[in-house]
């Protein structure tokens, strides 16, 4: 399933190829209640067609109304919705939230199409990029992105937006902790993939919205299921599942790799992976074990919370010592 922002860019690219001017809107910052995260996209064309979402309704209506009145002729605009501080905005959000939006006016030319094509590649998981937009000139360029950190960074004359595939959580094997991780991850915006070949374990598992595959996680990973926006977690306590998944995961581009177990169990696993799995010290260092934040978790729900919190920490570029 392709996420909404990828659909937005593909539609915008089609419009541009058909000769239409495109306005590309990006959520920059949110304060208080906001249904769409920074980096979320909406696009509209010069015939009033649109795709995507900024707020779930009210902001979109106001933006499209103003666009129809001939607004946003400049290369870029930065708008603030919700608190009345921006005289160009006629909307106060009923939820009490505030969001800032970047609006880019993109002509139907080769440069625009090349830019949108790079965006499509990034959102499709083929590469990770930082998109830099200068304000107020509207200059655009891409930088390679090899790290983790805030989705959007705003400076007085420059905006940088991280662009990548939809965040994916690959659960290597089913367990009570894995089930709760799946349920937590979906509302956080993750695509969730659960892999387990054990029919006696997976039979009857019902997780709406989760892609369940009756295959060895290691085989799924080796087949290319992990891109640079994937977190791989093994939560079964079964070395046949967990160890093989780790061996393949460290050879992938996954940004987070973790496996459940005590400190003693984790040390034994490292030795197995080094001796039998043939992994180097650098590869083993990529594995977070014991997995998750040290919250004193005991129950499956508490462990799942610690795991997802640690994934979010890494995704946002926050070192453990900064917590």
UniProtKB/TrEMBL annotation:
Q: Which InterPro entries match?
A: MoCofactor_Util/Proc (IPR052698), XdhC_CoxI (IPR003777), XdhC_Rossmann_dom (IPR027051)
Q: Which domain of life is it from?
A: Bacteria
Q: Which residues form the XdhC- CoxI domain?
A: 15-67
The UniProt record lists the XdhC Rossmann domain at 169-311
What is the protein named? XdhC family protein
What broad taxonomic lineage does this protein's source fall under? Bacteria, Pseudomonadati, Pseudomonadota, Gammaproteobacteria, Pseudomonadales
């Amino acid at each position: 399933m392709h996420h909404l922002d990828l659909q937005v860019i593909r539609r915008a690219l089609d419009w541009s190829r058909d000769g239409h001017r495109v306005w590309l809107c990006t959520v920059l910052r949110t304060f208080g209640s906001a249904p769409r995260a920074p980096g979320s996209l909406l696009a509209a064309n010069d015939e009033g067609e649109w795709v995507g979402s900024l707020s779930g309704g009210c902001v979109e209506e106001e933006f499209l109304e103003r666009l129809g009145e001939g607004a946003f002729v400049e290369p870029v605009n930065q708008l603030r919705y919700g608190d009345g501080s921006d005289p160009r905005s006629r909307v106060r959000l009923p939820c009490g939230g505030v969001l800032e939006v970047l609006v880019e006016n993109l002509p139907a030319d080769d440069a625009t199409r090349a830019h949108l094509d790079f965006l499509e590649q990034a959102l499709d998981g083929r590469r990770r990029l930082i998109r830099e937009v200068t304000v107020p000139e509207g200059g655009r360029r891409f930088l390679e992105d090899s790290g983790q950190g805030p989705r959007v960074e705003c400076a007085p004359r420059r905006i940088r937006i991280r662009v990548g595939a939809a965040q994916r959580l690959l659960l290597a094997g089913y367990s009570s902790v894995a089930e709760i991780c799946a349920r937590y991850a979906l509302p956080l915006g993750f695509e969730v993939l659960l892999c387990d070949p054990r029919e006696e374990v997976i039979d009857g598992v019902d997780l709406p919205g989760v892609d369940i595959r009756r295959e060895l996680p290691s085989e799924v990973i080796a087949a290319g299921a992990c891109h640079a926006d994937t977190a791989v977690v093994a939560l079964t306590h079964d070395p046949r599942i967990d160890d093989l998944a780790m061996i393949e995961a460290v050879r992938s581009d996954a940004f987070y790799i973790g496996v459940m177990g005590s400190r003693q169990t984790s040390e034994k696993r490292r030795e197995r992976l080094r001796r039998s799995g043939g992994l180097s010290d650098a590869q083993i260092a990529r594995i977070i074990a014991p997995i998750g934040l040290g919250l004193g978790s005991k129950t499956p729900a508490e462990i799942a919370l610690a795991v997802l919190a640690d994934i979010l920490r890494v995704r946002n570029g926050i070192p453990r010592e900064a917590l």
